[in-house]
Amino acid sequence: MTSDDAAQALREYSLQNLVLYFLKLGTTGFGGPIALVGYMERDLVEQRRWITKDQYLRGLALAQLAPGPLAAQVAIYIGYLKGRVLGATLIGIAFILPSFLMVVALGMLYVSFGGLAWMQAVFYGIGAAVIGIIIKSAYKLTKLTLKGKAALWIIFVIMCATTAYTEQEILWLFLLSGVVALFILAPPKSFDFRTPSLIPPLGLSLTQLPDLSHSETLTKVFLFFAKAGAFVFGSGLAIVPFLYGGVVQEYRWLNERQFLDAVAVAMITPGPVVITVGFIGYLVAGLPGALAAALGVFLPVYLFVVIPAPYVERYAKNPQLNAFVDGVTAAATGAIAGAVIVLGRRAIIDVPTAIIAAVTLAVLIRFKVPEPIIVLAAGLLGLALFPYKV
Question: What does 188-204 look like in DSSP terms, one character per residue?
Fold first, then answer.
């Protein structure tokens, strides 16, 4: 980028343009949390230079330490950098609203036609293409975060292997990674222990929610999904087992088939995967249920970003904080790489899906093809090939 290009990009960096960017990303950003945070890094750090690499990495580290969906948290943090609470609020709405409207529309069709049989066929192709998309995103994120430091590479490898083996993202390992990096990269001989802790603010939100057993349906929906947003760590995909336990097993709002269809809807629509809650909420209680579910799951996510964000930015130059962030970010990158393996095992199930994933990756590396076009082509391939799946 030339100096003139950089100056032009800086002039374009306004809250309005940032909102428009996230509105577009929420409308066209396929691939789930790993791909979405990769798009943000590519577009906002590398190409437009609206935020610095360090700001992006701090947002990624905070998102990994807090419960809730990864991509939505990073988006809200970036909004906070530009417009504080107003910016975080507008960016959060812009990022979530498009996919929310899509899943509600699909919910209406689903109820009207008694299920959408084509979903499984479409996801057969799209799921494989998404693996190619997120492999590229994970590779770029790895190059950005590890900085050639041996300690960070070791953390990355351990977290990648752990996530791939356990199929979980374990919070205490992220914290431990940050502490290990702190003592290796910036030993705290001059550490100021008066630095405010981020833990008290994180504990302010929704830690004691009332019992759901005697609530009305909408209140039950809101409080259940608020618990999901407040207490489930990991990417948007990590929330699926928690939702299954409540939606299918405890409250019996949906049956097994309906729940699997809800997850498929989230995977074939752009934006955060956790937006499946809108579809579930619609099946339970119509449009009010969809709104209650979405507000419930994203409100704690919003608070967990906005409350600690001022502390993160205020102490951004502290070497110990930077070392801790580097360790957490390396762990997050390793967990993302491990999640690619987990998702790949589920999406690449035969020769056609392996070919779709490989071709997607090759096309993305060789050509500048927009991801929505690739996803559309993969969905059509899925429709054509699924009837012949062995």
Answer: -TT--TTSPPSHHHHTT
What are the tokens at 135?
Answer: 């492999």
Give mean pLDDT, residues 337-356.
84
Closest CA to 237 of 74, 70, 76: 70
Closest CA to 40 of 14, 62, 21, 58: 21
Contact 366, 374 (CB under 8 A): no
- The token pair at 45 is 């750090």
Residue type, 324: F
- How many Å apart are CA 99 and CA 95, to the nearest integer? 8
The reported pTM is 0.75
Per-residue model confidence as pLDDT tens digits over 213-261: 444 789 999 999 998 888 766 555 567 767 877 888 888 898 877 887 8
Based on the number of CB atoms within 10 Å of its own CB, is 62 exposed (0-12), middle (13-18) or buried (19 or more)?
buried
CB 186 within 8 A of CB 320: yes
- Could you count the other beta carbons within 10 Å of the beta carbon of residue 19? 19
The whole-angstrom separation of Cα 159 and Cα 152 is 11
Are 294 and 282 within 8 A, CB to CB?
A: no
Could you tell me the sign of the dihedral formed by the alpha carbons of 33, 101, 291, 123, in that order?
negative
How many CB atoms within 10 Å of residue 120? 15
Neighbours of 348 (CB within 10 A): 19
Distance (Å, whole) CA 187 – CA 208: 37
Other C-beta atoms lying within 10 Å of the C-beta of residue 51 = 20
Q: Residue 310 and residue 308: Cα distance in Å, rounded?
A: 6
Q: Which residues contact 210 (CB under 8 A, 6 or more apart)?
A: 223
Specify the length of the chain in residues.
Answer: 390
**Bigger pLDDT: 144 vs 360:** 360
